[in-house]
Design goal:
Length: 277
Amino acid sequence: MPPELETSYIADDPHPDEPQSDIAAISELITGGDPDESEPQQDAAAEQDEQQLPETAEAQDTAPEDAAAPTDPSQVDYDLEIPMPDGMENMTVGQLKDHFRDHQDLQQERDDWEAQQNEQQLELMAARRQLVELAEMLKDVKPEVVDHVQQMQQRDDQQEAELLLKTFPKWADPDAKAAARTEQLDTFKQYGFSEWEYSGITDHRVIKALHDLTQYRKREAAGKAKREQLQSNPPKGQKPPTRKQSPAQERAALIQRAKRGTSDDKTAAISSLISRS
């Protein structure tokens, strides 16, 4: 080391008694402090940079999500017009929404119709298969056996037709019979039966039971309508009941109405008494 540099270093050294290396002394002169303190500062700066990098990346990741947040439906402008292609008239957002909903309903109806058609097709295929099986079985049956079975069936049908006419003499008129059977068919369908199933009924006892059920339902419907009419529009001079009557009082009132009322009142009262029994 040159003497002048060594002299300057010794003069500035606050602790001349402690030995220092030339490299340490030069580092201290350049940095203006302890050379060992620079390394912790550099490490702290690097660590701070590493902490900032994940935060920046996380901010970049979350930014698109915030930008793509769904719009509040209550803030949608349904009157905003949207240009349509091919010279079509512009449509608003609300109209497009309604058209989309109608399209969904139409698609659902189409799906239901196709499902119903598929079900009917399966039923038809099953019926055809049964007919084929029956035809194969009939091949082995002797003709005289088939004729005997047909004669028995015809005899039974004729007997049931005579008993049915005795049960319903008015059915001698074809129009009256057709009207009555139409009413029965409507009642029959309400219980889930089909017209084809109804047409296969020939037993006069079953037809009589179905007829009675049909007439009972008609009387019940008429009585209910009459009761509602009387409750909403009571006869002149008669005040509507101010308090609910007991079952015994209601029954007594219906009996009096059946005895003294008009023809319609009697019908409604008798129907009510039957429904309560």
